[in-house]
Design a protein that fits this description.
The chain contains eight helices and eleven strands. It has about 280 residues and is of the alpha/beta class. The protein has one domain: LmbE-like (Rossmann fold), CATH 3.40.50.10320. The protein has a nine-stranded mixed β-sheet, sandwiched between helices. Strands 6-7 form a two-stranded antiparallel ribbon. β4, α3 and β5 form a beta-alpha-beta unit. The longest helix is centred in the middle third of the chain and has 17 residues. The chain is globular. The termini are far apart.
């Protein structure tokens, strides 16, 4: 595909091209950059963003991975029904260390796979709930806590239009959790963020809901490392078609900036301040 690294970003009608993320980014924070990839399942982030994860580290940006579910529903043979979570834990550390992530940058939230609809919001936790933090459970509780602990400048998550319900729910809960994490609510979960992190989407199973804004092209060695990482998930036979699509696409990825725009009444003022256009009588 390419012998060099190329980033191409679309910003309105402008096309920015460069050999670094910093060179094409709109909101680069220099040495304060810290990327957090939120992966509903352990393999989602490498499938959709394995090249970007490598390139961020190449620019000395710390990369963290937050895995939401325990992967317990991802068994493909009956013998692994009760053990697949442990198998996937081992595969995950092997996979992302292949991409250069330190083991202590890989965090499991541990919510039951395919049951995220039971963990929306925040509520008091049962005494034996493994997802409990500060006496509470729920996606918003855990996401707010981890956002405040990791303190990312940018977050990356599967697109909200993705086929998998866990991906859509994770996206929705992340958006409100970013709002919580930047405010003073639930102080036992950590110090509020100093800013609202920029949110970016990557695709796993489905197309983006709107055109992506960033294209990445790399030499083949980065694609090989991404495919080697994916291959560590030997238990995940069901993603064979997705893996083949990644290989067929070659050494490129697409990402989409997600506009987490909080309500601003001024955006609508001009439309009401302008006098109406006179109607022509016929």
């Amino acid at each position: 595909m390419s012998d060099t690294i190329e980033f191409a970003r679309l910003v309105g009608s402008e096309r920015r091209v460069g050999d670094s993320l910093a060179g094409v980014s709109r909101h680069w924070r220099g040495d304060q950059e810290r990327f957090l990839f939120i992966s509903p399942h352990d393999d989602d982030a490498v499938l959709g963003a394995g090249l970007l994860m490598q390139l961020a580290q190449r620019e000395h940006v710390p990369v963290y991975l937050l895995i939401i579910t325990d992967g317990a529903m991802g068994y493909c043979v009956p013998e692994e029904r009760l053990t697949v979570s442990g198998i996937r834990h081992k595969e995950t550390f092997a996979a992302y260390q292949t991409l250069g992530l330190p083991a202590d940058h890989i965090v499991w939230m541990g919510f039951p796979d395919c049951q995220l609809s039971n963990y929306l919001g925040r509520r008091p936790a049962a005494s034996n709930d493994p997802t409990a933090i500060a006496g509470f459970t729920g996606l918003q509780n855990s996401l707010t806590h981890h956002l405040r602990q990791i303190r990312p400048s940018q977050c990356f998550i599967p697109t909200h239009s993705d086929l998998h319900p866990d991906h859509r729910l994770a996206h929705d809960e992340l958006m409100i959790s970013i709002f919580h994490a930047a405010g003073e609510i639930w102080p036992e979960l950590g110090v509020p963020l100093p800013w609202i992190p920029h949110v970016n989407e990557f695709a796993v199973y489905c197309d983006f809901p709107a055109p992506p804004s960033l294209r990445i092209r790399t030499p083949q060695e980065f694609l090989k490392r991404k495919l080697d990482s994916i291959a560590c998930f030997a238990s995940q036979r069901q993603i064979a078609a997705t893996v083949q699509a990644v290989a067929d696409a070659g050494a490129e990825e697409y990402h989409r900036a997600y506009d987490l725009a909080l309500y601003q009444p001024a955006r609508y003022r001009l439309a009401f301040d302008q006098p109406p256009v006179p109607r022509t009588m016929r």
